[in-house]
Amino acid sequence: MAPSPELEPHEPAEDDVVLRAEQVGKAYPGTTALQGVDFEVCAGTVTVLLGENGAGKSTLMKILAGAERPSSGRLYLDGREVAFDSVNDAAALGIGIIFQELNLCPNLSVAENIFLGHPALRFGIDVDKKRHVAEARKLLSRLEHDIDPEALVGDLRLAEQQIVEIAKALARNVRVLIMDEPTSALSATEVEILFRLIGDLKAAGVGIVYISHRLDEVVRIGDRVTVLRDGQVKARAEMRDVDIPWLIAEMVGRAAAFEPQADPLPLGPPVLEIEEVSLRNPHGGFFVERVSLRLRAGEVVGLYGLLGAGRSELFEILIGAQPDAVGRVRLAGEELAGLPIAARIRRGLALVPEDRQREGLVQCLSVGMNLTLASLHRFLRGTSIDPGQERSAVTQTIRDLLIRVSSPLVEVTALSGGNQQKVVIGKALLTQPKVLLLDEPSRGIDVGARAEVFRTVRRLARDGLGVVFATSDLKEVMAMADRILVMADGRVTGDFPRATVTEEQLVAAANRTAVEARCEEDAR
Ligand SMILES: Nc1ncnc2c1ncn2[C@@H]1O[C@H](COP(=O)(O)OP(=O)(O)OP(=O)(O)O)[C@@H](O)[C@H]1O
Known about the structure:
By secondary structure, the chain is α/β, with parallel strands linked by helices. It is built from 18 helices and 24 strands.
C-alpha cells in the first residue's frame, strides 16, 4: 500500500473563512437537532466534525449545503449573508456535499450521475454523452478506480457507489467540500487514496468538512475539530493539541468504551457448516470460490478482507439471495439448499446487510415496525399479534442498543444514520437467530454504540449464538473476533486464532491473490 503523504498543518488567517454558520438552530417535530451552533470552514483546512449518533452533525452539514433550512441563525459566504433554497443553490456557489446516505440514481449510468444537474443533461438524455463518459473516466482514475462510466449505478457495490459520489463532488468546482462519512464503505487502500486526494484539494485551497466515526482517521486527516453533543458545540480544538481519548471524552462524556474481547468461552456444537461454496462471476472467474467454514455455537468469527474480496457475496449465498451458488450449507445440522430467504430466517439465520438503506429498512415504516418486521411470528397469539409483547420487545431493543429516538412510532427515516444502523441490527437480533451474519456492522455508528453492539453480540454468543462479522477495519477484527478468516479474490486466504495473529499477517493474507492461494493449496 502506498504511504499517504503527511498533510502540512494549515494555519488559517481570519480572512480564510469561506463559510460560516452563526447561532444556527434546527427543530424537527419532537426533536431539537441543533441549538445556537457557530461553525466555520476555512480555505485549505480540514475541519473534523465529531459527535455521537444523533448529535446533529448531518443536520448541520445539510444546512450548510442547502439541503435543509435552519430554523434560526444565519449563514455567511465570504462574509456575506446567504440563504440557500436547495442543494443546487449552494452548489452554484461552490459548496459540495457527499451525503452519508448516498444520493445516486440507481437507474442512471455512472457518468450520468456524476454530471446530473449539468446543463447538457436534460430530461434524462445526455446530449454530451461522449465527453461526459471521458471526463467521468478521468475523474474516476484520479480516484485510482476503473469503474466503467457507462455501468448502471444500481449494479455497483456500496463502496463503488461511494467512489462515484466523491467523483460527482469533484466534477463541480467546489470551494467547500463536505464529506459525511466518506470512508464508511471504503477499504483501507481506498481510504489512503481519498486522503491523498484530500491533501491535493487542501493544497488547492478547498475548505473541507470531514465527518467520521473512525477516530484514527480523523486525527490523521484533520487540522481542526469541533465536537457536537446534543445539538450544541461541546468543544473546539486544533487537532495537533488533542488525542483520541480526549475526543471520546468530549463526544460521549465518559472514557473510551471499545473493550477488547475477553478470553474465548468454551464452544458448543457446529451451528453453521459451509462446504466448498462457490459463485461464478458471469464475466469470468468467481465472486466466491470454494469457501468452507465451520462455525460453532458461541463462536465469533471475523471475516476480514479488502473491497471485492467476496465477503458480501458469501453472506448473500448463505441467506439464500444467490440461487446460482453451488456447495453445501447446513444450519444446526439442517441442509439449507433450495430454501428461500424467509425459510432460512425462520430456521435461525439472520443477516445485517451492508447497505441499510436498500436492504435493511422499510423507509415509510416506524422504528418499532421495522424492528419487528422479521420476527412478527414470535408475537402471534392465534391469528393476531399480541401488541403488548411486541411493544415490550421493541422497548427492550431500543434500550439495549441505545437507539436514540423519542418514540418507537417515529418514522425510521427521521433517525440519524447511525441510529438507523442500530435498528437494522436490532431487527436481526429480534429474530432470535442461531447464527448472525453481520456485514460491516459498525458502519456509521459511534464508538459508544459500537461497543454496545459488540457487547450485545458477545452476550448472545455466551448463550450459544454463532456470529460471523465482515469488516475492513483491522482494529475492530483484532479486538472483537475469536477467530479471523481472511478473504481475497473470493477465496479464504487465511484462518487465524485471534490470540496469536498479527496485523501484518492479516494484511498479507488480504492482499494474497486467488492464484497465489490456489498454488499454495496445490503445494499442500
Ligand atoms: N427529518 C427528520 N425528522 C425528524 N428528526 C430528524 C430528522 N433528521 C434528523 N432528525 C433528528 O435530529 C437529530 C440529529 O440527527 P443527525 O442526523 O444530524 O445526527 P448525526 O450527528 O449526523 O448522527 P449520525 O452519527 O448517526 O449520523 C437526531 O435526533 C435525529 O433523529
